[in-house]
Amino acid sequence: MNTFEISPFRLEGDVWLILDQTRLPGTEVYLRPETKEDIWHAINTLQVRGAPAIGIAAAYGLWLSVKDFTGSMEEFAKTLQAAKDYLVTARPTAVNLAWALERMWNTWRKSQPCDIITSKDLLFAEAKKIYEEDVAACKAMGEYGLTLLKPGMGILTHCNAGALATSKYGTCLAPIHLGQERGYNFHVFSDETRPLLQGARLTCWELQKSGVDVTLICDNMAASAMKQGKIDAVVVGCDRMAANGDGANKIGTFGVAVLAKEYGIPFYMYVPTSTIDLSTSTGADIHIEERNGEEIHKLWYAEDMAPAGIKTWNPAFDVTDAKYITAVITEKGIVRPPYTENLPKVFK
Ligand code: MRU
Predict the structure, then answer these.
(1) What is the pLDDT of residue 300?
(2) Helices marked H in the chain — which ranges?
(3) CATH topology of 3-138 equal to that of 140-347?
(4) What are the residue ranges spanned by the domains of the chain?
């Protein structure tokens, strides 16, 4: 498959189909969301996941919430605001969700449309723009990211920050896809990413489809892979980066970053500007989602893997302290420490 055909969305006019990622890698089935509740459920259950992708889905969900609206402009505003407040509760950590919803809301308010039809058109156009801008941002991150990598490198990644997590191309997997097209022959090691196996199910699916040389490892094998010299660089995505450069990403990322530092391996975090939250000072202020313990003691399609009633702790993300991040790759360029000083510059 052409790498660049992989996407969690299939846009058919004003019907956006969503690839159900809980069914991958075995089954490729598209959902056809019709209401904001469908979108909320798809985001909450990880049918669509990854920071940019949930922002895009939420933007579309906001439009769905008013698509069939009839009534006064005053009621329209109330309906829209209520849908925005509802959709933002689907997941707490990735800032792209709130970012996309706020952007939709502000665009509508600032343009002050005088009728319902114009309002609906404007919201749909904005959702499409968010999608298209993400495609461009991922492409740009791919180009910037590739300047940090050399042909033949061994590259470790954690979770899935690929095409499936965005509109297309991915954030940290964009340079891998691009390198594949340009003959870089990377050797990618994909952490399986317990408990929901985004690395095994999604990254391996996506990279294998694109013909990339990918090896699946269990999360607890990353240290050995580094010690044995198999890894030259680590690339990961991000769900929310605080003003000081602390970056929340899938649980387990932090451990990989600490290991990379120990072995002198560069650790690159791919962070589109829609994922940078300058209003959050440090990683300590990022709300880390805690999910149902069943994700740990049951596999999705299998038997219990621990005694019934076992106590669990299941944080879905962790924060990598800025000091472990060699560079932050955005669509505007590569940001180096000190992040407190340099991150705001990408918005200028
Ligand atoms: O729980 P998930 O699968 O939504 O977690 C996804 C990640 O942690 C990604 O690395 C992150 O959202 C960046 S996606 C470009």
Answers:
(1) 62
(2) 36-44, 51-66, 73-87, 95-111, 116-146, 174-181, 198, 204-209, 222-227, 253-262, 294-297, 339-342
(3) no
(4) 3-138, 140-347
Q: Ligand 1 in contact with 52 (CB < 6 A)?
A: yes
ipTM topping 0.95 = yes
**314 assigned ligand-binding residue:** no
Pocket lining: 55 vs ligand 1, CB cutoff 6 Å: no
Owner of token pair 């918005």:
347
Best residue among 239, 254, 256, 276 to mutate for probing ligand 1's pocket (most ligand atoms within 8 Å of CB) is 239
CATH code given to domain 3-138: 1.20.120.420
Tell whether residue 47 is among the known ligand binding residues.
Answer: no
Nearest Cα to 61, choosing from 95, 97, 94?
97
Q: What is the pLDDT of residues 96-133, one digit of tens each?
A: 999 999 999 999 999 988 899 999 999 999 999 999 99
277 is catalytic: no
From ligand 1's centre to the CA of 93, what distance in Å?
10
- Give percent of the chain with pLDDT exceeding 70: 96
Determine whether domain 140-347 maps to CATH 3.40.50.10470.
yes
Annotated catalytic residue, options 134, 191, 219, 239: 239
pTM (two decimals): 0.96
